[in-house]
Design a protein that fits this description.
This protein is mainly α. Helix content is 84%, strand content 0%.
Length: 121
């Protein structure tokens, strides 16, 4: 039960922060979901740093990992919003934005995880 509570608390903070970033950066005028993109990239970087630090120093307990990686990063990053925003691009026929956003999210997201782990080495 304690582990479930840790994930719940971390997820709540991550989701609230994602909401703030989305409100601040998602642009309704041009439809570019920069807030979601940034949340996914920052979350990828943070989980890379966090898990790289944990692997290098054996400093994080399972509870720390549940709170920060599973909870916070899981709540902060969002595949469902990413998928919906891509659906909107496709439905409107904006194939260029769809391609750029999808490819950039995957490539930069992977690079952010690797960068986070590299920074800890």
């Amino acid at each position: 039960m304690k582990q479930l509570l840790l994930v719940f608390i971390g997820g709540g903070f991550g989701s609230a922060l994602r909401f703030v970033v989305g409100k601040w950066l998602n642009n309704q005028e041009n439809g570019i979901p920069l807030g979601t993109f940034l949340a996914n990239i920052l979350g990828s970087l943070f989980i890379g740093i966090l898990l790289g630090f944990a692997a290098k120093n054996d400093a994080l307990t399972e509870n720390h990992t549940l709170l920060l990686a599973t909870g916070f990063c899981g709540g902060f990053t969002t595949f469902s919003t990413f998928a919906y925003e891509n659906h909107v691009f496709l439905k409107s026929g904006d194939f260029t934005s769809f391609a750029i956003y999808t490819i950039a999210s995957f490539v930069v997201g992977f690079l952010a995880v690797f960068a986070g782990m590299y920074l800890i080495k």
